């Protein structure tokens, strides 16, 4: 083979390799940015879930208290009704 041809061929391969390398570096950068965004969204979602779970716990506690208060009120009303009926 002609040495000039080999040199030209090698130079073409080098240019092609450098373009590919640049392309892969850009793709890595894009994917890294996407990963960071996804991690940020995941962290936000985890904090939101924790807040919602706390809200659920608080609401369940309030519901339990309200049910207990309602039961007590029913007992008082039943007792009052019995007293009124016995008059």
From TrEMBL:
<dbReference type="InterPro" id="IPR000533">
    <property type="entry name" value="Tropomyosin"/>
</dbReference>
<feature type="coiled-coil region">
    <location>
        <begin position="21"/>
        <end position="76"/>
    </location>
</feature>
<keyword id="KW-0514">Muscle protein</keyword>
<keyword id="KW-0007">Acetylation</keyword>
<dbReference type="GO" id="GO:0003779">
    <property type="term" value="F:actin binding"/>
</dbReference>
<keyword id="KW-0175">Coiled coil</keyword>
<protein>
    <submittedName>
        <fullName>Tropomyosin alpha-4 chain-like</fullName>
    </submittedName>
</protein>
<keyword id="KW-0009">Actin-binding</keyword>
<comment type="similarity">
    <text>Belongs to the tropomyosin family.</text>
</comment>
<dbReference type="Pfam" id="PF00261">
    <property type="entry name" value="Tropomyosin"/>
</dbReference>
């Amino acid at each position: 083979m002609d040495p000039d041809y080999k040199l030209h061929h090698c130079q073409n391969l080098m240019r092609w390799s450098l373009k590919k390398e640049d392309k892969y570096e850009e793709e890595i950068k894009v994917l890294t940015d996407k990963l960071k965004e996804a991690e940020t969204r995941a962290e936000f979602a985890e904090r939101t879930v924790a807040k919602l779970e706390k809200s659920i716990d608080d609401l369940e506690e309030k519901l339990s208290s309200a049910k207990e208060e309602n039961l007590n009120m029913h007992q008082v009303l039943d007792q009052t009704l019995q007293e009124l009926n016995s008059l």
